[in-house]
Amino acid sequence: MKKLNCVLLIDDDVPTNYYNKKVIEQIDCAEHVETCISAKAALEFLKSDFDDGAQPKPDLIFLDINMPGMDGWEFLDSYNELSDDVKGQIVIVMLSTSVNTDDEGKALQKGVEGFVRKPLFKDSLTRIIEENFG
Amino acid sequence: MVSQFYKLLGYSINEIPASLETFSNLVHPDDKEYTFKMVQRHFEKRVPFLVEYRLKHKSGKYKWFQGSGQATWDDDGKPMRMVGTIIDIDSRKLSEEAELKRAAELAEKNRELEEFTYVASHDLQEPVRTIASFADLFEQSYADKLDEEGRQYLQFIKGASMRSQQLIVDLLDYSRLGKSREMIQVNMNETIQDALVDLSVKIKEAKATIKVDDLPTIAGNATELRLLCQNLISNAIKFRKAEINPEIKISVHQNETGYQFSVSDNGIGIEEKYLDRIFVIFKRLHGKTEYEGTGIGLAHCKKIVELHHGRIWVESKVGVGSTFLFVIPSEIES
Question: Above 0.90 for ipTM, yes or no?
């Protein structure tokens, strides 16, 4: 399995980010894991300058839907308005408690690559990486 | 007129005799007594005759009509003859009936939903309490045997179980709102004073000034109205700007439908796109680390105002402040 440069976790719940980071570390699939506890903070992070190499640009984003203020859907709308060189080749996967199939359809329409139910398991993480980066 | 009458009922003229007896035979048994009582009333008291009744169509089905009539009286005051009109109101009546049925079904569904919320959240309490208790016990007995990471896990478990407990309590409170309600005359000046007493520590800490207009006495539920005022004032203090002291103004004005109350602050304000969302249960605009709370307060406010057949909304400008407005109608049907 390919080792990613950076994974970005966006979730307002600190323990959730901690847990997901742990799962990523356990299968050793990324050099760096970045966490943001709000969608706004994540947008700012993505707009930051990655060219100097001081911080790695994410290859994969796990995005929560239900967050205070700007939620996952609004994040996707704002993200889709970003310029192509900011977006790059980033793969976005929704990671949500939602069991609503409408949400899944909506996510795919907004250009998301996958929809995974919480909690994140090693198997589903491996599958996501193989499907998108294999 | 007579030919119209037959046509509306599917008969051809002369198929049945034009008489009061015919009418009496065609009118629905449930409507007969009332209709004839109204005719009698018209004859005796000369008040206008306007009645809705069902008549039997030739097909055997009853249809709704609206009949009106005017008698003429002889010199002795005896009714001589009566002329009138009859209008087919069947489709209107049917949609009215369907509307009533839908409303009753909706009320029943709402009741079931509230019952469900109550039972579900009540039964969730126990397992969540077990997690919280054993996390505590685990920490007391084994925390010193754990490494840093182990203790971190334990903190997450404790934090999450506490939050679950709070969410369940909020949900229970929410579902209980509106049960066993006593509607009385509530002096809103006293309601606000009671709320301010409860909030006195918060008010002092935030150095908040609160100006209150002279408020009216309204028909409502005292406990709910107090909770409503307390939530709105508490929010106005909570979402204050860091650099200035909170100033809160509570005013009222009367309009044709009732009293419109407003709670204005000079706080951080709310982005326009979130103005509706804030009244949804557990919806929050800020992270848990910025502002505490589960996001139940305004959902409570909305439910309380709606239990009083009123409306609540907010006007706001980011960086300037927010004004929460609610209308309580003066005529409340119980």
Answer: no
